């Protein structure tokens, strides 16, 4: 039996734990400090099809990442686990220049051939949109895709860890290499997955690596309303703001994208109040809602905004992924699954050469 340590229980680590634990050859132990994790703070929208990023490798990952949720959900349900963390309620896309909506419609319509998950695609008037999400303001027309989904990050990772059956140790740990063996928390492991997001440099720098990862602070605010929000679509205005309705009247608003804040996890009311003012422009009824919680997480970015995954250079049994940025809930499960495929010597739908880890993790000379 091979002993595998997974450090980090966010979206990548928890997915890897779930799929690796399906193979009886592996004994999986998960270590998680539990502080600042991006996934735990995240309420996410799965809707990559409107992106105009020119990076084709990134779009392929995001497109396949959205599709992969259907496989993940089927696997969990087959294992007897509930999957309320994912709800396909559709997405509303708003633009300040509404004439650009036609071009986005055409883009998504072309992409529908390889991504049928997009579903029904329509330009809606305000009156038509109100049938899906009443009392939205601040627009005349919007673009709707029925395949858009919302994800509750914390519930997703909890479900995956429970389903994995892996031992989860809540502790801050480090990776030590002695005589070619990999040590974590005084235990020796055959293989290690570093799924530590923005904290990856903390693990690899002491081992003599330069890691091209920087942190970005993201904040959410959660509201409780008296509305029946279960089937409301998620709303994506232009800019940082998203309005994400969940079941039972809960609505999340976020998320900020704060650079130069390091790993600071203190809630900044000024930033959230500013975002709330923007949200009220589109959804004035939020003023009647009660604020129930605020969340902070730290995203990981590379200098060129591209994610990476694979084997750490010169460490044949250490694997890592990072740089997922604000699309981590879309791409994270697929990346976690692919790390497991690599460990088992199998191929997946992504070519690791398109996401080359050696560009971002370099051994210091």
UniProtKB/TrEMBL annotation:
<dbReference type="InterPro" id="IPR036188">
    <property type="entry name" value="FAD/NAD-bd_sf"/>
</dbReference>
<dbReference type="Pfam" id="PF01266">
    <property type="entry name" value="DAO"/>
</dbReference>
<dbReference type="GO" id="GO:0016491">
    <property type="term" value="F:oxidoreductase activity"/>
</dbReference>
<protein>
    <submittedName>
        <fullName>FAD dependent oxidoreductase</fullName>
    </submittedName>
</protein>
<feature type="domain" description="FAD dependent oxidoreductase">
    <location>
        <begin position="3"/>
        <end position="341"/>
    </location>
</feature>
<keyword id="KW-0285">Flavoprotein</keyword>
<dbReference type="InterPro" id="IPR006076">
    <property type="entry name" value="FAD-dep_OxRdtase"/>
</dbReference>
<comment type="similarity">
    <text>Belongs to the DadA oxidoreductase family.</text>
</comment>
<keyword id="KW-0560">Oxidoreductase</keyword>
<dbReference type="GO" id="GO:0005737">
    <property type="term" value="C:cytoplasm"/>
</dbReference>
């Amino acid at each position: 039996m091979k002993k595998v340590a997974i450090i980090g229980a966010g979206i990548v680590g928890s997915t890897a734990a779930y799929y690796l634990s399906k193979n009886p050859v592996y004994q999986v132990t998960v270590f998680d400090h539990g502080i600042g994790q991006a996934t735990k703070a995240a309420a996410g929208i799965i809707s990559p099809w409107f992106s105009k990023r020119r990076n084709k490798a990134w779009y392929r990952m995001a497109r396949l990442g959205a599709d992969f949720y259907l496989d993940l959900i089927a696997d969990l349900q087959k294992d007897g686990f509930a999957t309320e963390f994912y709800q396909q309620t559709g997405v509303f896309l708003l633009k300040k220049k509404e004439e650009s909506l036609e071009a986005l419609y055409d883009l998504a319509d072309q992409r529908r051939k390889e991504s049928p998950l997009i579903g029904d695609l329509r330009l809606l008037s305000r009156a038509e949109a109100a049938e899906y999400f009443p009392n939205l303001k601040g627009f005349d027309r919007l673009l709707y895709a029925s395949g858009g989904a919302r994800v509750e990050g914390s519930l997703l990772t909890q479900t995956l860890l429970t389903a994995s059956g892996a031992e989860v140790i809540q502790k801050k740990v480090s990776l030590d290499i002695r005589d070619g063996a990999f040590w974590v928390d005084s235990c020796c492991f055959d293989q290690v997955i570093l799924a530590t997001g923005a904290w990856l440099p903390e693990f690899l720098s002491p081992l003599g690596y330069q890691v091209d990862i920087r942190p970005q602070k993201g904040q959410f605010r959660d509201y409780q309303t008296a509305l029946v929000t279960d089937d409301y679509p998620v709303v994506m205005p232009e800019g940082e703001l998203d309005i994400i309705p969940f079941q039972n009247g809960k609505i999340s608003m976020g998320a900020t994208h704060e650079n130069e804040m390091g790993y600071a996890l203190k809630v900044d009311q000024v930033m959230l109040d500013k975002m709330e003012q923007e949200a009220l422009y589109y959804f004035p009824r939020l003023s009647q809602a009660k604020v129930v919680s605020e969340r902070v997480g730290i995203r990981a970015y590379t200098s060129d905004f591209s994610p990476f995954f694979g084997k750490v250079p010169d460490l044949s049994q250490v694997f890592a992924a990072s740089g997922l940025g604000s699309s981590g809930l879309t791409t994270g499960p697929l990346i976690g699954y692919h790390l497991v495929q690599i460990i088992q010597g199998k191929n997946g739908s992504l070519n690791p050469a398109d996401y080359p880890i050696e560009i971002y993790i370099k051994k210091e000379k």
